[in-house]
Amino acid sequence: MYFQRARLIRVELPLLNPFKTSYGELKNKDFYIIELVNQDGICGYSELEAFPLPDYTEETLETAIQIIKQHLLPIIAQNDVSTPEEVHQLFAWIQGNEMAKAAVELAIWDVFAKAKKKSLASMIGATRKSLTVGVSIGIQSDSTTLVKLVEEYVDAGYERVKLKIKPYKDIAFIKAVREKFPKLSLMADANSAYNKEDFSLLKELDEYDLEMIEQPFGTKDFVDHAWLQKQMKTRICLDENIRSLADVKQAHILGSCQAINLKLARVGGMFEALEIAKYCTKNDLLVWCGGMLEAGIGRAHNVALAARTEFNFPGDISASNRYFHEDIVSPAFVLERGRLKVPEGYGIGVEVDFDTLQKYTKTIEEILLNRGRS
Ligand code: OSB
Ligand code: MG
């Protein structure tokens, strides 16, 4: 297979509510849609999930789109690709830049699935028809507001709730939610806001029967996380630390965590994600599918991944209406009795809704990839 052209569509989709983490606040979902077209005119789609600021990982939308234009698309223009797995190898000499790589690789997976007339889920060996899912809730002004919000999501059918925390926006919030919902599957995500000196706060959190505490310490730290995990009943989950299978192995061998938040964008795409999921299952690490406020295309990729049997814990894969007033795919993802359906159509199984997309499109750049080919 070879690719004729690409389109890079810059999109700014307003969030229904600002999303606040320990390190910042987002009001929009700023992203690019990558469209790749093969020699037969089959179109594949993905989202570039990097953020405007280098605050979650090093990449930004600007750095990632440059890597895509200057390095990744030229590789795709110069090489025939006979399986989507090959893409990972073609990109391997480029260090880091996982979100840029994932964006191109995932669009290619979509093209291959469509060319084979298969759903992306079946193409990657995923067998579930529907998924139970969770919701991630940003830091709120006070615990009364938070408890009300949790109630709305529980009523909507979400089976697991993740609360963003940071020092002193933690114990009182978790306590209030836990008192109101004694049996709820509940967890906390610190996005690296703590360090060893905050041990007493984390030890207090250990008493609220949380499913896990996600990424308490720094994004490059494996040693202090291992120190912490040894002293906590609650599972530690790593998110920002995990860019590759090698990181998962290191975390496992050192005992830095008992759970892995797996995000396609953060590990460079589907090939690496599948390797990680298999490794986790083999080594008794809980693996679950995280989220990056994806719009419908990214959400579809996540749903396909989480439909594999390695994923036995509800992902951060909520319905389209958790973040957006309208989604850019049709049909949008809806929660039905607490579950999301795994699309069965070819490829990602949802259509890009270009009428809606147009309203939120900032720029479109087209890049020809088949110069010099007949
Ligand atoms: O840390 O998991 C995270 C969103 C953006 C960046 C990082 C994270 C998140 C979320 C939201 O927690 C997950 C989602 O609902 O998409
Ligand atoms: Mg996280």
From TrEMBL:
Domain Mandelate racemase/muconate lactonizing enzyme C-terminal: 143-235
Cofactor: a divalent metal cation
Database matches in SMART domains: MR_MLE (SM00922)
Classification via InterPro entries: Enolase-like_C_sf, Enolase-like_N, Enolase_C-like, Mandelate_racemase_C, Mandelate_racemase_N_dom, MenC, OSBS/NAAAR
GO function term, MF aspect, one: O-succinylbenzoate synthase activity
Reaction catalysed by this enzyme: (1R,6R)-6-hydroxy-2-succinyl-cyclohexa-2,4-diene-1-carboxylate = 2-succinylbenzoate + H2O
Active site: K164, K263
Pathway involvement of the protein, from the record: Quinol/quinone metabolism; menaquinone biosynthesis; Quinol/quinone metabolism; 1,4-dihydroxy-2-naphthoate biosynthesis; 1,4-dihydroxy-2-naphthoate from chorismate: step 4/7
EC number: 4.2.1.113
NCBIfam families referenced in this protein's UniProt entry, alphabetically: menC_lowGC_arch
Protein name from the UniProt record: o-succinylbenzoate synthase
Name of the gene this protein is made from: menC
